[in-house]
């Protein structure tokens, strides 16, 4: 990552209000407001289902920055599962390619970030699974089989249906508890 970009990102993070998330993708700095209560409740419902299936030696982390300097990207998923022995880098960011999955609950204010930017960036960053919960569309989508910088497989489910989360988790996610935006 260009040192000038890193300095700029550090400055933006320093001056941004506490409830604003700051991410970096290529040449673009992305800033988002704090999530809504429905967003947080859906994230909690998903996180609770993952708890019993997190591989030994790993932990779930909410809103941890994941960096991939080799592709000049820094993203902050709502939830990621990482090895317990992962080492923090600059700005407390963790190496993106150590994440086993990234989970996003789509925010009303910037759905294109979760639906366009992150499915493009996450496989390039070495993240093998990407789960999107979209309360506006009342859907859950799993991207998997990351290969050559893109996801080769996609599975969709409507709220109320189930979706299989593959190994290393190996469970079926119940979406009936998820809430749509009003």
Explain what you see.
The protein has 182 residues and is α+β, with helices and mostly antiparallel strands. It contains three helices and 13 strands, in the order H-E-E-H-E-E-E-E-E-E-H-E-E-E-E-E. The chain has helices at residues 3-15, 37-50, 111-124; strands spanning 20-25, 28-33, 58-62, 66-68, 73-75, 79-83, 94-95, 101-105, 130-134, 139-147, 150-158, 162-165, 171-174. The strands form three sheets. The chain has a six-stranded mixed beta sheet with strand order 3-6-8-9-10-11. Strands 2-1-5-4-7 form a five-stranded mixed beta sheet, with helices on both faces. The protein has a two-stranded antiparallel ribbon with strand order 12-13. Strand 1 and strand 2 form a beta hairpin. The protein is globular, with a radius of gyration of 16 Å. The model has no long low-confidence stretch (mean pLDDT 89).
Major sheet characteristics: 6 strands, mixed
Q: Please work out how many helical segments DSSP would assign.
A: 3
| Binned strand content | 35-45%
Global geometry? globular
Mean pLDDT level? 89
**Portion of residues within helices:** 10-25%
Biggest β-sheet: strands ordered side by side in the sheet: 3-6-8-9-10-11
Spans of at least 5 consecutive residues whose pLDDT stays below 50 are none
Number of strands: 13
The rounded Rg comes to 16 Å
Give the helix/strand class: alpha+beta
N- to C-terminal distance: 40 Å
- The helix/strand order is HEEHEEEEEEHEEEEE
């Amino acid at each position: 990552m260009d040192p000038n970009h890193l300095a700029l990102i550090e400055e933006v993070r320093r001056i941004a209000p506490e409830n604003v998330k700051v991410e970096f993708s290529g040449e673009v700095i992305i800033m988002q407001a704090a999530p809504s209560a429905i967003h947080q409740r859906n994230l909690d419902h998903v996180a609770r289902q993952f708890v019993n299936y997190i591989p030994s030696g790993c932990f779930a982390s909410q809103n941890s920055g994941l960096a991939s300097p080799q592709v000049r990207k820094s993203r902050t998923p709502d939830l990621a599962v990482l090895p317990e022995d992962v080492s923090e880098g600059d700005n407390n960011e963790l190496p993106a390619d150590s994440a086993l999955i990234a989970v996003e609950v789509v925010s009303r204010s910037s759905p294109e970030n979760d639906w366009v930017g992150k499915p493009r960036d996450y496989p390039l960053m070495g993240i093998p699974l990407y789960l999107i919960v979209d309360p506006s569309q009342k859907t859950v989508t799993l991207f998997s089989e990351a290969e050559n910088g893109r996801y080769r497989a996609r599975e969709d489910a409507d709220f109320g249906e189930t979706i299989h989360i593959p190994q290393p988790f190996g469970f079926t996610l119940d979406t009936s508890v998820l809430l749509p935006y009003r």
